[in-house]
Amino acid sequence: MTQKSAWTIMVYMAGDNNLSAAGEADLEEMRLVGSSERVNVVVEFDNAGDAGTRRIHIGKDGVGEHIETLGETDSGSPDVLSGFIEWAAQNYPADRYALVLWNHGNGWAPTEVDRIARSVNSPGFNEREISERSASPLGRVLFRPSLESIFKLATPSERAICSDDGSGHSLDTIELGRVIAKGVETIGQKFDLLGMDACLMSNIEVAYQVRDHVHYIVASEENEPADGWPYDRILGRITANPDMQAAELARSIVSDYVDWYRERDTTEDITQAALDLSQLDSLTEPLDDFAGRLTTDMSNSYPDIWRAQRKSARFWHNTLWDLGDFCGILHGTTNTHEVGEAAQAVINALAPGQGRFVLAESHLGSKVERCMGVTIYLVPPITSISRYYGELDFSQNHPWMSMLEAYHDA
């Protein structure tokens, strides 16, 4: 039986797109450190320039690497990700597991969008829509089934609405929950850390969807630059201290990521946060109260919400709002005392620190200067609520969805 290591770090690189070069650069960063006796670093890399997908046990400077070459795979398939988790756990068992999902580019190529649409016999699909859907938010989804679900809709106009209303993000969240739950069955324990070297994943809906299967999440509210995480720094820390707890690793990723971009005087907006899912209720409880108070007096709440939306930080084509900034603006402008108090309670729950839901948070850039680490779905009334948002666990178990519906109906 293979001896357990302290950590196995699984990095799933969906790079069969315009980010192949960035993926190779990140591999070289990993090789600057490599695996050690007590830390295994394993990668599955689907590269646009290769004939097949590679599974790699990363060695320092590439020395002693174990590489398996698979046939061509669909890195957007949850089944392919599940297969990688199973392979990593069987060959490199550990006391602790981190899974990093790597994908932060411009999304699916038009040829791939066309192929997926044709595979589900998408009605009325044509070359113009190929171009539009590839360039839309829908083109940024992680998982193939998310695209398939949209392409099965009856008309181009329906698919266009779903491209702009956050449906792709909602569907991705559902698929992510499924694949992480299956991964937990494979490894026999919760993932100690789920890292998302990807765009726009630090939101309450994602955290809630994987709440029973992951201890800590590290992710960004904002789009990530193509350089992504500084893997040499991150892996250097954990190989130097393989007894590092998951909370310490999560905090260090946040600081290393933002520091790396600060040192390079980036002009891009940078965000990163570590979330402790054992403390999720400490946020959902005041958030439920806030949503309920907004809903109860929606005639007065409507202008408060709209005013706060216009002034607070938002992402993903105006579908995701920084929750803390939104509540801060609303608290400072509402004339309804009870709503203001409830907004402040949410802000208090987002304060970072040990034993808090937001374990650590850091940001860089003027757009995100008031961000607090967590976004929430908050489409304005001019945009339809995603038909898939109600399928999320968060929507089904908490009153935010009811508040959104009341807001849109007001």
Overview of the structural elements:
By secondary structure, the chain is of the alpha/beta class. It has 3 domains: 5-106 and 170-278, Rossmann fold (3-Layer(aba) Sandwich); 110-169; 281-356 and 366-409, no CATH class. 45% of the residues lie in helices and 18% in strands. It has 16 helices and 12 strands. The protein has helices at 20-31, 78-91, 110-119, 127-135, 144-151, 156-164, 167-187, 204-209, 231-240, 246-263, 281-296, 298-311, 323-333, 337-349, 393-397, 400-409, and strands spanning 5-15, 39-47, 54-57, 66-69, 94-103, 191-198, 214-219, 270-276, 314-315, 320-322, 358-364, 375-377. The chain has a 9-stranded mixed sheet with strand order 4-3-2-1-5-6-7-8-11, sandwiched between helices. The protein is globular, with a radius of gyration of 21 Å. The N and C termini lie far apart (63 Å). The model has no long low-confidence stretch (mean pLDDT 94).
Please report the distance between the alpha carbons of the first and last residues. 63 Å
Strand order of the largest sheet: 4-3-2-1-5-6-7-8-11
Secondary-structure arrangement, i.e. CATH architecture of the largest domain? 3-Layer(aba) Sandwich
Task: Provide the CATH top-level class of the largest domain.
Answer: Alpha Beta
Number of domains: 3
SS-based structural class? alpha/beta
> Major sheet, described briefly?
9 strands, mixed
Please state roughly what percent of the residues sit in beta strands, choosing from under 5%, 5-15%, 15-25%, 25-35%, 35-45% or over 45%. 15-25%
Task: Return Rg in Å.
Answer: 21 Å
Q: How would you spell out the order of helices and strands?
A: EHEEEHEHHHHHEHEHHEHHEEHHEEHH
Supply the number of helical segments.
16
